[in-house]
């Protein structure tokens, strides 16, 4: 696929025909090559625009594999993964990386930031790989600063090195980074697990504020069912996916 | 911005990166230093004698003749008789000829008998003439002119008395005919610095009471008697010859080489110098090879450092990947990092070289007569630096490809 074609597809998600379904997986099957057999099969899973979904699952339930599939760092052996109307399984490796940069905001558990970079560097990083998203962000620095203040980060933090921040602040910077340029889909992998109960609540408040303001779809993965009430929908890993393990 | 992040990442690992840069800098400085000494030595070597078209001596090897006539190393197996010398001097192609008579020593320094023409015709470093640092060229029969090193190490000044020993490393001294230092030559960086120069007649005078290498007992001949004697030498060791026209050099060389009355040899100093350098040069090439290996070692050290950093940096790579960086971006980040380390090392090494040169220049000139020129980096040095950076990049491909594989396998998830 040429970059141009890619552009058109990602653009049509933002402008004319707004897709009601942001993420759609169907008949997906994946197994890790080589080692002890681990197969993940998933019949159907879809997220609507603006929806917030909590995906619950124990460790080893295939959450990480699923996230990697959605983000396009691994390819399913069969099935389709459509994001904003684009079947990412049909893109080349480089195009998938580019697509991820343009369309998905990612928040990790912890250690989200490049410790040696400034907060600004970290927030602006995804725009380096996504010219379209960069355009959408407008004045990127101003947008990043605005996000920081909306997320309740002190002003002087902007030029500080990321490793000087507290864990809670770091997670908020990670949110700002996921949100900049407003991608349609935010993937969050246990972003609250490193926070205490109070900070967890505050963090989720901020996150939901932002996603509802921009009709962003949020897929958050966690093993903690207590978070459930705050989401539009709760999905258990075992409801949507089947895991088969066989010792080779 | 990616580049700035790469720099920030290096700065964050300042200690290990600094060590790596230092190792590369030292190795580059060593390599360039050896190179500098090598070229300096080669130039000083080639500059030992210039302006002389032919060196004539008894038949032996050209390198041997060069060694004893110019470098005062080794001995002549035979002399050139005074008649032969006169014949050559009378050859129409000869513009000037300077006889050299060797064989005696003063302390550890060779004594050379010659004529005043030597000071006029002996040239070094592209036509530079000998200059007097103190005193004048010998005028009296028992006058001697000494080189800078002789004066320095023996503490002689103009008018100091000198006693010449017969033969080399001999304890039998020609006490009867004490010489006087009439002048001291300025430092040249050539073997002249280590030579005591007397007149050809003085050489004869010393040996008036000696027959076949042994001192004839009985009373020695007083100096004033010697002064009245005919001191024309019977033989000289070698002769420096200048030709009237370069075109006649080979004709004259053939004339000398085919001289019927005794076996003689004429050599072109430049050719013989090159021949000699070819022998000496092997050691210097070996030295250069060793320091090149030091550079390679430093680069491999860098590779090891990058390698060992990979594991702790998987998180960093995963973040880059999650933000949309391709595995190829990860690879190029590491290669750029290595290029920056190598460049910093090479440039720092060049700086070290210049600091070293400023310190070493007078030491080398004084001790070895090797002039290390301090000038802007040459094309050759620039290409060495480029080669180091290039080799650094190539070497870094090994860990970079590993990082590429890791980032393909890890994606954005690091299982820790």
From TrEMBL, chain A:
Protein transport recorded as keyword: no
One Pfam family recorded for the sequence: ABC_tran
Keyword Transport: yes
GO CC annotations, alphabetized: plasma membrane
ABC transporter domain: residues covered: 23-247
Lineage: Bacteria, Pseudomonadati, Pseudomonadota, Alphaproteobacteria, Rhodobacterales
GO molecular function list: ATP binding; ATP hydrolysis activity; transmembrane transporter activity
Protein name: Putative ABC transporter ATP-binding protein
Keywords assigned by UniProt, alphabetized: ATP-binding, Nucleotide-binding, Transport
Tree of life domain: Bacteria
Naturally occurring in which organism (per UniProt): Falsiruegeria mediterranea M17
TrEMBL record, chain B:
Alphabetically ordered keywords of this record: Cell membrane, Membrane, Transmembrane, Transmembrane helix
Residues in coiled coil: none
Subcellular location: Cell membrane
Transmembrane stretches, start-end: 12-34, 264-283, 289-310, 331-364, 384-404
Domain ABC3 transporter permease C-terminal: 289-407
Domain of life: Bacteria
Membrane topology, as annotated: Multi-pass membrane protein
Record Pfam families: FtsX
GO terms under cellular component: plasma membrane
Protein name: ABC3 transporter permease C-terminal domain-containing protein
